[in-house]
């Protein structure tokens, strides 16, 4: 077909000029290559590392994998049947699920330079990209089962927890203990960086958990800015925003003085209580602290087993990076629950870690507490008075329980 108004020679010359345009030629060259720089072949050790780790005795195996061989087999059975481990999108056969799991556990359990992606890749004889791929795949598989691993106790479980706390320390109707912890970051986040700076002068993420007397996590929330305090984190969490969904009648949890006194959250007496701080109050505070020590042990065990949580080497440049970090922390919490029966402190003492930093599942870190904002000043005052009377009643019950034990 003839182009009206255009000479064919002119059109031909224009097309020839475009084809020889250096900018277009450069773009065509870029599009024809997957990588901008030459690919460097990575030396591989194939399966030597896997065979070496398998040959280790139980204690040395735990120092690398952070769990016993029996527990490793249990988790391997849990995840190996998942569709993400069946085949790759490209149709290529995946690395064995066993080796993928070993790589991820080594990464979760390492801190400092030991957590370097390059180091782990060279140890396992794989590429750095494979380390990231194995980690992301394992997180996807584990988080698909999160609701079955970390869950609020049902009716039977509630009665069991109440019986334990009452028989051991005299607190009736107690469903567990709440506290928070700081997950320190190795690098300053570029995404809302200053808001992650905490009172300890470190960049960190606030995480909150509720556990039962067996140190089993029953509620978990992470992803909060490091500058937030325990009370604000609690009010922003689903637990704090929907107390009626989690508690019935006189049920409650014990928290430290970083939380506000609520109907369902009982905290210790403060030094500035009206009427003075009595010896009875001091005694009650001691029993209160002795009872909720389970949550301190819970965080200590979590960070001792998974050393990456003591100083997380993940860069948070955009919001999606924060979501990756949150997934990391949640998976470690899930593994903590699964491995509660796998306890051997000796196997984890090679890192000389002496504890955790006490401080606090919400994927929306910008949510504001709604408990205080919805209630009027009068309603807040009435709620505090009711909680205070409830605490005074507990104080008498606990003191009588302690005297009867003597």
Automatic annotation (TrEMBL):
Q: What's the cofactor?
A: a divalent metal cation
Q: Where in the cell is it found?
A: Nucleus
- Mark out the compositionally biased spans (Basic and acidic residues): 376-390
List the GO terms this entry assigns under cellular component, sorted alphabetically: nucleus
Q: Per the annotation, which location comes first and is thus the protein's main one?
A: nucleus
| Polar residues compositional bias, start-end | 351-360
Q: Which residues form a coiled coil?
A: none
Keywords, alphabetical: Hydrolase, Metal-binding, Nuclease, Nucleus
Return the Pfam families for the record: DDE_Tnp_4
- Report domain DDE Tnp4 positions: 178-337
Q: Which GO terms describe its molecular function?
A: hydrolase activity; metal ion binding; nuclease activity
Region described as Disordered: 351-390
Q: Which family does it belong to?
A: Belongs to the HARBI1 family.
Q: What is this protein called?
A: DDE Tnp4 domain-containing protein
Q: Which organism is it from?
A: Mucor saturninus
């Amino acid at each position: 077909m003839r182009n009206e108004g255009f000479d064919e020679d002119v059109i031909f010359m224009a097309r020839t000029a475009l084809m020889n345009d250096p900018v277009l030629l450069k773009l065509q060259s870029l599009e024809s290559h997957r990588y901008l720089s030459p690919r460097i072949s990575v030396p591989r050790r194939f399966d030597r590392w896997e065979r070496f780790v398998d040959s280790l005795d139980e204690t040395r195996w735990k120092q690398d994998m952070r769990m016993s061989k029996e527990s490793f087999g249990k988790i391997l059975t849990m995840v190996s049947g998942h569709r993400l481990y069946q085949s790759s999108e490209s149709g290529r056969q995946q690395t064995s699920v066993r080796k993928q799991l070993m790589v991820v556990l080594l990464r979760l359990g390492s801190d400092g330079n030991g957590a370097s992606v390059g180091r782990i890749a060279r140890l396992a004889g794989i590429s750095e990209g494979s380390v990231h791929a194995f980690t992301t795949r394992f997180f996807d598989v584990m988080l698909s089962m999160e609701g079955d691993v970390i869950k609020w106790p049902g009716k039977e479980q509630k009665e069991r927890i109440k019986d334990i706390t009452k028989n051991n320390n005299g607190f009736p109707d107690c469903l567990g203990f709440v506290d928070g912890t700081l997950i320190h970051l190795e690098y300053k986040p570029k995404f809302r960086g200053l808001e992650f700076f905490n009172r300890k002068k470190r960049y960190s993420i606030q995480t909150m958990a509720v556990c039962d007397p067996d140190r089993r996590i029953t509620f978990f929330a992470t992803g909060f800015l490091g500058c937030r305090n325990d009370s604000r984190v609690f009010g922003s969490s689903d637990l704090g925003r929907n107390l009626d969904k989690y508690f019935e009648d006189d049920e409650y949890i014990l928290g430290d003085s970083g939380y506000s006194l609520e109907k369902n959250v009982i905290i210790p007496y403060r030094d500035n209580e009206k009427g003075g701080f009595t010896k009875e109050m001091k005694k009650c505070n001691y029993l209160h602290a002795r009872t909720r020590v389970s949550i301190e042990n819970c965080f200590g065990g979590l960070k001792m087993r998974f050393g990456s949580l003591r100083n997380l080497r993940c860069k948070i440049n955009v919001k999606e990076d924060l979501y990756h970090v949150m997934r990391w922390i949640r998976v470690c919490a899930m593994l903590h629950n699964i491995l509660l029966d796998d306890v051997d402190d000796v196997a984890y003492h090679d890192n000389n870690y002496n504890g955790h930093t006490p401080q606090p599942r919400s994927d929306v870190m910008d949510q504001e507490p709604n408990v205080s904002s919805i209630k009027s000043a009068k309603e807040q005052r009435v709620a505090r008075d009711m909680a205070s009377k409830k605490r005074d009643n507990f104080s008498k019950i606990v003191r009588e329980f302690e005297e009867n034990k003597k």
